[in-house]
């Protein structure tokens, strides 16, 4: 056999081998997709493994009626932010070392297990706050969060030093500062979205000040989403869609690329106060004030509600939040009685 024939045979063998490897990979991928996902087992009939309290930091002689309003984990899981009735945001870092062999004694201790690493005092009631989506404790430049409060502009805070990194100001027809009722970063982290009365304002994160793009949520013929935009959530599957909830009892889904209104969802009995996409981005959950139900929508077919989850919140105007745990199987919600759904 000549050298050319040997080279041709080697090329043919290599091609066949690569083809077989691709076929094997395809078979393995298909089998993995068909296999049932092993969800973690969550037990709610036993006490928590470890619990912490922060009584001393939230309640004191000067403000005995202060209470915790919400908790927001950082994207990297290294810390969490809290909002309380005293118009204060507190950041708690997780302990550097947790001894898992010790028993849970924090719940019975008179002292808080650890103190807040950062305290940011806002001038008025905190409407909303959110982390920068690429926040990482190993990169101090990304450790920021945004907040919006009554009668104040949107603030961008340094989560390490507590310094104000930027202010994003919106003005009304009287050239007075108007506050956003909700705020969120877009998935790329380049813009801050603010929800206002019948409008959305979009700020470039790198250009603090009064420069913004404004979009009315109502069309010229009064179609669209009226009312205060009280909640904003972006689809995690990078489809360019985001949802907004309104006190007009409606939820709207927009395209971030051209701000086109894609769907307008009706069905909430009260003003919508919280919207959140499922982990795969196919479903949208909405909840409202004085409304006992969390609604599930399939954004691929929004003709009707997929199902409803009952929670005891029909007697309060407070914004009661919910969240989906990392595996995407369980949803937990606040309420007059705490609920967890599977």
TrEMBL record:
Record region (Disordered): 1-24
Comp. bias intervals (Acidic residues): 1-10
Coiled coil feature spans: none
Alphabetized InterPro entries for the sequence: SWT21/TCAB1_mRNA_Telomere (IPR051150), WD40/YVTN_repeat-like_dom_sf (IPR015943), WD40_repeat_dom_sf (IPR036322), WD40_rpt (IPR001680)
Domain of life: Eukaryota
Protein name in UniProt: Uncharacterized protein
Source organism per UniProt: Aquilegia coerulea
Lineage of producing organism: Eukaryota, Viridiplantae, Streptophyta, Embryophyta, Tracheophyta
